[in-house]
Amino acid sequence: MSKVETRTVAPDEADIRLDRWFKRHFPHVTHGMLEKLLRTGQVRVDGGRVKGNQRLEAGQQVRIPPLPEPGAKPQGPVITAEDKAFARSMVLYEDDELIALNKPPGLPVQGGSKVTRHLDGLLDAFGTGEKRPRLVHRLDKDTSGVIVVARSASSAARLAALFKGRDLEKTYWAIALGVLIPRHGEITGYMKKTASTQGDRELMVAARHGEEGAQYALTRYATADEAARRASWVILRPETGRTHQLRVHLAASGHAIHGDGKYTCDIPPLGGVSQKLHLHARKLSIPREGKKPLVLEAPMPRHMEATFEALGFDREMDVKPVEALLS
After folding, report:
1. What is the Cα Rg of the chain in Å?
2. Ramachandran angles phi, psi of 216, nearest 5°
3. Which pairing describes strands 144-150 and 279-288: parallel, antiparallel, or unpaired?
4. DSSP code string of 304-315
């Protein structure tokens, strides 16, 4: 066992989540062990208790309690051959800076008390220690599509800053109940997190400007097609990145996303098709200095393809004129 020590957060580690930082410095420490250390207050930042999702600032002091020796190996393989193959099957694109993955619906991005298989855990397939990719953003568990991970701390910092700003362009496809009027426009308002009646999950609700915890949110939308006014193929571009933003905004407009059991509206769900969430992170356009933006696209999951076919939507149609309405 090591002794108690204090480590200073380096400048290139700013804005990294504490659990990601810990994984980087102590790859042999499991997520469960870290959570126990955090719950008991043995890991602290600047002397205070913290949670694993807290983002660090350069210069902060992290208290490290006695840990197993760095050379100690966890029992069993870090990742199975099956999981490694599954992780590699998700790859859409990779270079020296990032890896783009097509996350399937139902796969959580991060672990929790009842989650044993998640995207973050699968990143061991691409390297460990300093070579292990880092998460820079997230998608909801049931949302599919493009998600990128950074190959280095410096890349993670650059990408995280882009996701916080508006230079990085995110495009989603959804099937909404009914038809939005007007067919294109924007949805704005304030929202905040509150305790959910569905276990310990976060729930976003409408809020007033100036209210504690209220955050402004802006979503641009355009309708690509509709099916007898029963449902719409909607292309969405969030200009802000609030939790569950697209789901909340469409439900608030009276046209919830089909399959969303958390944020609903008065229109009943579609019958005869999959009841999974029909929200897909279709495309990311990432700025690159001195080069054209890197455009990453993910094919739809099977359940959305089947619903598109059932509703008569042409998923091969040229959507550029529709996307132009989002500018």
Report:
1. 21
2. -75, 140
3. parallel
4. HHHHHHHHT--T
3-class SS at 121?
A: helix
Of residues 274, 319, 270, 322, the one with CA closest to residue 301: 274
**Spatial distance between the Cα atoms of 96 and 90, rounded to a whole number of angstroms:** 17
Q: Encode 226-245: b = buried (16+ Cβ within 10 Å), e = exposed.
A: bbeeebbbbbbbbbebbbbb
Q: Which pLDDT belongs to residue 165? A: 82
pLDDT in tens, 247-277: 999 999 999 999 999 999 999 999 999 999 9
> Nearest-CA neighbor of 2 among 39, 28, 41, 21?
28
One-letter amino acid identity for 212?
A: E
Q: What backbone phi and psi angles, to 5 degrees, belong to 207?
A: -140, 165
Question: What's the CA gap between 253 and 126, in Å, rounded?
Answer: 41
Q: Inform me whether the pLDDT recorded for 86 exceeds 90.
A: yes
314 carries an active-site annotation: no
Question: Could you report the per-residue pLDDT of 21-62, keeping only the tens digit for each?
Answer: 988 888 888 877 888 888 888 999 998 889 888 899 989 999
Q: Active site residue: 19, 120, 124, 140, which one?
A: 140
* 131 residue type, one letter: K
- pLDDT tens by residue, 290-319: 899 999 999 999 999 999 999 999 988 999
Backbone angles phi and psi of 22, in degrees to 5 = -65, -40
CB 7 within 8 A of CB 67: no
